[in-house]
User: What shape does this take?
Amino acid sequence: MTSIRLLEGLNIEWKRGPLDGEIKGIAYDSRLVKKNYVFVAVRGYSEDGHEYIKDAVNRGATMIVAEHPLTITDSRQPGVEKETAWVCVPDAREALALISAAFYGHPSDTLSLIGITGTNGKTTTSFITKSIIDAGGESAGLLGTICYMTGGQTANALNTTPESLDLQRYLREMVESDMKYGVLEVSSHALALKRVKGCSFQVAAFTNFTRDHLDFHETMDDYFRAKREIFHYLDKKGRAVLNRDDQWVRKLEGNLDCEVITCGIEPGAMISAENIEESGSRGPGSGGLSFDVQTPEYRFRVESKLIGRFNVSNILMSVGIAYSLGIGESIIQKGIKEARPVEGRFENVDGGQKFLCIVDYAHTDDALRTLIGEARHVTEGRIIAVVGCGGDRDRGKRPVMGASASELSDFVIVTSDNPRSEDPDAIIRDIVRGIKKSNYTSLPDRQEAIQEALWMAGEGDTVLLAGKGHETYQEIKGVRHHFSDREIALKVLREIKDKKMKDQE
Assistant: This one.
């Protein structure tokens, strides 16, 4: 593809040099630049791509896209060659997204792309939605918090929503794998940083909205504005699916320039749930949900292996998405029934113990309160919660998380959860500041905290390991160390079982 074709649709402020060269690839990391590549100088959190223009040119970049003409024309920059094309744009991130979409042939125009945003529930809703599509005999790719599935293989996710260049590459892989649908979790960061620019969604869904990421967005209003940006990427016939039970999301109902489908348990939603029944959750494969679904056209009953009343909302959102795509009730029923519990989402870890051990990704106050509330519903004894907060993130939510954990649990162990560059003890102090009761202790070492919780649990209790869910690492001082709540829990549960067997001998 020629340089000039890649630049179609860009807001260009200034350019020079040959723009008819053949482009073989794109990079926003100068170390990945090869001959005949475009290098886009993007500002990151800690580094600025403009500082690596010289390196990109030396590695063979034939076009530079940047935000500052003074930088790229500065005679003090060595290594700048006459045959290099220079393009100045007001927003390099937007340019990266548009160039990437063009380079990969605008794959979202071929796919039926489904975007799902919201503070909580994105992952579960995306997996149920994919299961419904698969049940109808079609194939759907999925990009989200846990993994990227594009047809050929499944890869671990680095970000909930990949950077725009990687996103477009994954979407192209879906197209080449003959997939008809793409299901994409869309984070507020991705929307604010324009990673989905160049995408065209057939359906955009908003699951719920609660406090999170205020280290990035600063205010709840800023955070909400970022989330609602997803609806700007709907195609001309695109539909919005909204959780009407959420007071923030409900505000959008009459303020979107597209067809809107509302879902909810409370009265007034177009797609609603009635006669909800829950069964037990004492072991893998047991428990689940069943309820009647009412749509504007038909009524049917669904059965799901998922545990917890909060999953009724996730299932309804998936029904709303499927309904907006014209998928019939029998396929929806089948897809919901076949959808497996999602890793790290109210996941029951069974080591033969006589109490529940639940691993969950709950890392916001609302998610934590929901988690503990659901656990209370199925717990005969005490709830013992292991809770932490991530470093280099919204400090304001830490005391709120501590207060919720202490208020709703019988005992809390405050610990680490990806401290990153911060001192774990300082994070714990922030959390403890919100605790008003004496029903807690603190153990900075997360493995020790999990061990303590499981050893103190008795028959009928529930241990909640909150915050990390599916994650298999602990990030400390910029280094990711292997760490899995589930693996640690199983190891400890085996030790407990072995000790009890020895005591009985």
Observations:
- The longest helix spans residues 485-504.
- The CA atoms of residues 127 and 339 lie 7 Å apart.
- Residues 73-77, 281-285 have pLDDT under 50 and may be disordered.
